[in-house]
Amino acid sequence: MDLIKHKWLWIFIFLNLLGLLSVGVLVTDDMADGNPVQWLRYFVNELSGVWLLLPLIAALFWFFQRYPITKNNFRSRLPLHLLVTIIFGASHTFLMYSVRTPLYHWFGIGAYNTFYGILGYRFIMEYLKQFIFYWVVYGLFTLFKQFREQQLQQIRTVQLEEQLSKARLEMLQMQLNPHFLFNTLNAISGIMYENLDAADRMMANLSDMLRSTFQIKQSEHTLDEEIRLIRHYLKIMEIRFKDKLYIQISREELAGQALLPVFILQPLLENAIKYGVESKGKIHICLNAKIIQDNLQITITDDGPGIQPSKGSGIGLKTRWRDWKTTTGIILNLNCKTGMMADFPSVLKFLYRVPHECLDENSGGR
């Protein structure tokens, strides 16, 4: 916050305003009494008084930070603070006397010691004002300290929530990956004795996909990277089902830069293939991605019958998608269709976000 970041500038401005207000009080008092206004003397006195507070306030801040008053130490700290009020007041009065004496001589407005009166009484008179000032400063310091601590606490809370969401997201991905791996290895073993060459190509694509997965360090990547990743899986399925499976992928250029969770599309495509081929024998799957009103919308459609209630829903995609939405906070909508693909979303909406490097390259874009 600017108020805290530039606190000394604000303190300097506040003290100057305080000094000018004091000048105004003295000037109007002279006017009210019909006396000549001693402009120069008032400016020298009041501005030197507030300016000399700056180094003392810095010392007070250090003291307040080191020796705060709390419920537990009130009895021991209060006498210490009362002692410091006396030291603060005496220091301020001594500095004012030391600085104003040569200034009076320099500006030719008389001898300051004559104007100031008996110094001992002046120490007492000034202390009564300085005592109040001390506790006002302490109150403001404590207030801003608590405000700053709340700000830092909020920042730490947000960072912790981000770390927790990332950990949950990685956990969800770890739950999906073994399921995918188990099913894919089953598919390869099922075809191995029928077509060794096909099984070898399926294994090669699986190896490429696993290698790409292991190289991913983040929990999110771009849609283009997600498509490159799932193409390995789709090649495996195309080898397995041959002419029974036709897959079409299209996306807008801007959509390709959008961020989304790693491996989020694979379970949708897996279920579309599984239940479509089982029920119909042939299936046509379309994946389309575009930007609509600053949101990334991914639509997955097929001409299959969808998941039948008697066959369940894979690894619990309903619950899993609810977890994705809760964990990431970037999934805006998960629309389910009746009939086709009824048990998992066919339309996904994400907040449109791009990596920082894309923002730098396209600063004039979205």
What is the domain total for the residues? 2
Our estimate of the beta-strand percent is 5-15%
Helix content: 55-70%
Instruction: Tell how many strands the DSSP assignment holds.
Output: 7
User: Which superfamily, in CATH terms, is the homologous superfamily of the largest domain?
Assistant: Histidine kinase-like ATPase, C-terminal domain
Head-to-tail CA distance between termini: 28 Å
Poorly predicted segments? 336-345
State the CATH architecture of the largest domain. 2-Layer Sandwich
Order of helices and strands: HHHHHHHHEHEHEHEEHEEH
Largest sheet: 5 strands, mixed
Rg, Cα atoms, Å: 37 Å
Shape: rod-shaped
Q: Average pLDDT, to the nearest integer?
A: 79
The quaternary state of the protein chains shown equals single chain
CATH topology of the largest domain: Heat Shock Protein 90
Structural class: alpha+beta
The CATH class of the largest domain, by name, is Alpha Beta
